[in-house]
Amino acid sequence: MFEKNMKIAYLLDFYGDVLDEKCARIMEAYYEDDLSLAEIAEGEKISRQGVRHIIKKGEEELSFLEEKLGLAAHYKELSALAEELSATAADLLSRGDQKTAEVLTDAAKTILNKGV
Question: Fewest CB within 10 angstroms: 21, 40, 44, 97, which?
Fold first, then answer.
């Protein structure tokens, strides 16, 4: 059976705009809207096998882009660091060090908003 690889759904968020319009639409229908191959095929007026082929090609392209650019992995690392900063800020705040806690909280927000 053809199982969904949820890592691909994550990569679609990063690189989906790079895919051609039809491929992006089909990939989004499959991964984000959770439509079946048959449902997508009906809507696209192509065969179920055609849908599967487009999804496989899209998955390969997304994986290739991540292998070469690494944006999703980079963002994941930055998110983990931002979480550590936020946890440290919460700890410092509980100890009464509001100024340092605010600096760390602002740093964590900056990492998440501008990190990639």
Answer: 21
